[in-house]
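Work through what follows:
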Amino acid sequence: MTLAGLSRLFGDRLEAVVEAAAAADRAGIDQIAVPDHLAIGPRTDAYPYGPFPLPPDEPWLEPMTTLAAMAGATRRIRLATGVLIAPLRPALLLAKTAATLDVLSGGRLDLGVGLGWQREEYEGAGVPWAGRAARLDDQLRACRALWAADGAVSFRSDTVSFRELRCAPPPVQPGGPPLWFGVAASERNAARIAELGAGWLPMEADPDAIARGVAVLRRAFERAGRDPATLGVRANAPIARGPDGRPDLDRTLAALPRLAAAGVTIAAFALPAWARTPADLPAFFTRLRH
């Protein structure tokens, strides 16, 4: 489940997202994902994937805080960011926050990361827009070093450096939370995912485009000596519509085998597209699982 467009479903009662997570957990949903924006500037026309889908006054809950609240209300569902604009957080802060959330959730965090698209957000956070991809690499390598260390660790790169630091407690998951990358499937990004990641978060929902990206990523896994079958892919389920123009769940579910054949391992559903009120959610979750 993807929690985007919260105002459409929850209105001013945003705390109800925790109740929604608990209902998804009880129904057997596999994962719930929370997107990220620290702030939204006026230039939403810079959004690279077409018209920006939400109004400028749409509320965005901070993902790690939100998932921590959900962790306390759930028992088995995976808790994901999708995606966290990681370079906006200092490496040590990200390492500590993610490790804490992994511990408190019993090892249920999937850390989806990306670069974002809004220059103003970087400027407002005091983070350079230029070099953000290299900063992401350094940051995640530093996090991995801290998560895996049995004692003090030192790390040095162009953008992150520290000496003899301990970051305890370590995550529950060995090596730290799995890293999923919300980036285009270029050769450079494929090498990045093969080095550091567990999975890919494509923006597109078209199975043919996803299949092409998966092929690039699997080749990168092979070059890195990793089993390409272990690549995870979480993609949005393409919404099929009925004769009335409204989303049709049966038709959408019938199209999922084509998505799976493209290499997708997790199909994501944006809640506001499928429910009008929070009271609609339990029945929707149950329908998905049956």
